[in-house]
Automatic annotation (TrEMBL):
It comes from Halosaccharopolyspora lacisalsi. GO terms for molecular function: acyl-CoA dehydrogenase activity; flavin adenine dinucleotide binding. Its cofactor is FAD. Pfam families: Acyl-CoA_dh_1 (PF00441), Acyl-CoA_dh_M (PF02770), Acyl-CoA_dh_N (PF02771). Residues 249-398 form the Acyl-CoA dehydrogenase/oxidase C-terminal domain. Gene3D superfamilies: Acyl-CoA dehydrogenase/oxidase, N-terminal domain, Butyryl-CoA Dehydrogenase, subunit A, domain 2, Butyryl-CoA Dehydrogenase, subunit A, domain 3. This is Alkylation response protein AidB-like acyl-CoA dehydrogenase. Residues 17-124 form the Acyl-CoA dehydrogenase/oxidase N-terminal domain. Residues 134-237 form the Acyl-CoA oxidase/dehydrogenase middle domain. Belongs to the acyl-CoA dehydrogenase family. Keywords: FAD, Flavoprotein, Oxidoreductase. The keyword Acyltransferase does not apply.
Length: 405
């Protein structure tokens, strides 16, 4: 893949050439490897994982897009990741999330600014074999309470970290962690023992082969089935103090910056889901004849198609802008990524629903492929911020400069 050390801004009508070339190469990867495996991966049992597909993506450099060149990466930044993930999600959102979740696990290493951590954890993604990462935040009783700063004091049963000499000892359980079953390491958020709720939230890089780490079971999900979501259990897991990211009690800061980067890429995945559903409906409306004319020439179909494609274009503009801002502002701001994700997640659902209405009974059949896009369209509303969490982030940004709320 072409490399660039720049996190260039986007153009509303034309991406920089190195990103256009990346998009072309990802489309080739999708056509050669993702589309042929979509049905099998979607219908496989919950714990099956397509390592052949993952290796093909690794060989194309898809696990190192956001990593700087000095650590063996491609140096594309968040914008390059987002462009790539839309292309993959237009065929399979679950496959896109395998790569996106690994980027999420890499993000704290990048944000740490710690050359020691970066030199230890980033070069592994450029080796001969694929390496995956995960991000472990959510728990059985603590989801949004770990995402909303003012709620952290109310979090309960959070994974704990206790300092012992030059190590921390982690205990507890994380749930719904994408890639946990197959990742080599995870960024694990734990509360310093004794701090109320999650007020002592701290990030640790934990190799998942460390004694005391247990994986599973894998969740049997409605959609996004190509990627595995599972539990991580920590029983007296000893983590070197040098694996802490950003210092004690700074986990919320790291997590917030990480989310602001990731939300732009999740918006890209939702845009890809909408696009995939739209392309099926568009093809059908060009082939199906009613009243002596193809469906797209009827006003009711034309209106639906026009609104669908306009929404997809708008969602793409929002995520491109959000990704560009995330690459060029430190720290990455909350407003643009949250706004892009809020809009794109809704567009995915709306477009998939309209595509189903245009295709009718055929859209409801398994072998037509549309019902998978309908299932996948609902997934992104759950991870990296529900619409309600995003609304809080957006309104906080709107009133940030006000003296009185």
């Amino acid at each position: 893949m072409p490399e660039s050390s720049e996190t260039a801004t986007y153009s509303p009508t034309q991406l920089p050439e190195h990103l256009e070339e990346l998009r072309r190469e990802v489309r080739e990867f999708v056509d050669a490897h993702v589309r042929p495996s979509v049905v099998d991966n979607d219908r496989a049992t919950a714990s099956e994982f397509d390592w052949k597909l993952v290796r093909a993506g690794h060989d194309r450099g898809l696990f190192r897009l956001v990593i700087p060149k000095e650590y063996g990466g491609a140096g594309y930044g968040v914008l390059g990741v987002a462009v790539a993930l839309e292309e993959i999600a237009a065929a399979c959102a679950g496959t896109a999330l395998i790569f996106g979740a690994t980027m999420l696990g890499q993000a704290p290493v990048l944000l740490s600014g710690d050359p020691q951590l970066q030199s230890r954890f980033l070069p592994m993604f450029s080796g001969d074999d694929p390496v995956l990462a995960c991000n472990a935040v959510t728990e059985e009783l603590a989801g949004c309470d770990l995402l909303i700063p003012e709620n952290v004091v109310h979090a309960t049963d959070v994974v704990t970290a206790r300092r012992e000499s030059d190590h921390y000892v982690l205990n507890g359980r994380k749930r719904f962690i994408t890639n946990a079953e197959v990742a080599d390491f995870g960024c694990v958020y734990a509360n310093i023992e004794g701090a109320p709720g999650a007020t002592g939230l701290t990030a640790f890089l934990v190799p998942l082969g460390t004694p005391g780490v247990e994986r599973g079971p894998v969740a049997d999900k409605m959609g996004y089935r190509a990627c595995l979501g599972s539990e991580l259990v920590f029983r007296d897991v000893r983590v070197p103090a040098e694996n802490m990211v950003g210092g004690e009690n700074n986990g919320m800061i790291i997590s917030t910056q990480q989310m602001n980067m990731a939300r732009a890429t999740v918006a890209a995945i939702s845009t890809g889901v909408a696009r995939g559903a739209f392309e099926l409906a568009k093809d059908w409306c060009g082939q199906r004849t009613q009243g002596g004319a193809p469906l797209y020439r009827h006003q009711f179909s034309a209106r639906k198609l026009a609104e669908m494609t306009s929404k997809i274009d708008a969602a793409r503009m929002l995520y491109l802008n959000a990704a560009s801002v995330a690459d060029n502002e430190v720290p990455a701001p909350a407003y643009e990524p949250a706004s892009a994700k809020l809009f794109a997640d809704r567009v995915a659902i709306d477009v998939a629903e309209e595509a189903m209405s245009l295709m009718g009974a055929r859209g409801y059949l398994l072998d037509q492929g549309l019902e998978k896009f309908v299932r996948d369209s609902l997934g992104a509303r759950i991870y990296e911020g529900t619409p309600e969490v995003l609304a809080l982030a957006i309104t906080e940004a709107l009133y940030a400069d006000e003296e009185d709320f």
